[in-house]
Write a structure and sequence with these properties.
alpha/beta; globular; 45% helix; 20% strand; seven-stranded mixed β-sheet
Length: 242
């Protein structure tokens, strides 16, 4: 059972609605804070995800929890027929759409509002599906993964990039301190939502990672799945196949 962590503990809204509200609030400076808090290392992680998708020669790609479209834009550069960037936050998609237009990628990328747990696409639609730092925000993780499995073509690849927890000294202790104190403090200074950068490290700490998340992927129906820890284990890439 995945521990349920929510952004606004006093709110009566469900997790999905709270996450939507939170990302709408932080959308205007999300990219800036993301680069700042990861020291830009997240770009190299995304490049590895893109290479995995490129190796499969995917033509129809769905990027779930696309946010401001960073990963979708990188995926468009491997020349697929189409990349659909899907997110529940209108605010994040508005920022993403501006970036797509500025890069003249309108013919390759379509940014759409959508719910990962109720995808509007037919079975076996996509050659590849990606999620970058988004699965921990799913309200019902297994339902979301089952939907992804449903719309993925047979032999298609599913690649997840998600925060994880280092286990070795002294990286574990340093990362715990950074997540608990530095991220919330910097978030309060620069963000329009003081709760957001408290929630993000808390949700990362509570989320299953490594073999535990890998087993959930296999339980959902994926026949193979491989774990690739990144940068001393502070994030992990998972590649699964249908």
């Amino acid at each position: 059972m995945v521990e349920k962590v929510i952004p606004y503990k006093e709110s009566d809204l469900g997790k999905k609605e709270q996450v939507t509200q939170m990302f709408d609030k932080v959308s205007s400076n999300y990219d800036f804070l993301n680069r700042l808090l990861t020291f830009g290392i997240d770009v190299s992680w995304r490049k590895k995800v893109v290479k995995m998708v490129a190796d499969q020669k995917a033509k129809m790609i769905l990027d779930i929890a696309t946010g401001t479209g960073d990963l979708a834009i990188m995926l468009a550069k491997i020349n697929p027929d189409k990349v659909i960037g899907l997110d529940i936050s209108k605010g994040m998609l508005e920022v993403g759409n501006k970036k797509v237009k500025q890069l003249n990628l309108d013919d390759k990328i379509e940014m759409v509002i959508g719910d990962s747990e109720n995808l509007s696409y037919a079975d076996n639609t996509f050659d590849a599906i990606t999620v970058g730092f988004g699965v921990r925000n799913f309200e019902d993780l297994e339902k979301g993964l089952s939907e992804i499995y449903r719309v993925l073509k047979p032999k298609g690849t599913f690649v997840v990039l998600e925060t994880s927890q280092p286990t070795k000294f002294p990286v574990k202790q340093g990362f715990t301190f950074y997540s608990k104190y530095i991220i919330p403090t910097v978030g309060k200074v620069f963000s329009k939502d003081k709760n957001a950068y408290q929630y993000l490290p808390e949700s990362a700490a509570a989320f299953p990672y490594g073999e535990e998340f890998n087993n959930i992927l296999l339980k959902t129906g994926f026949n193979t799945s491989t774990v690739y820890p990144q940068t001393f284990g502070i994030s992990t890439i998972y590649q699964a196949f249908k």
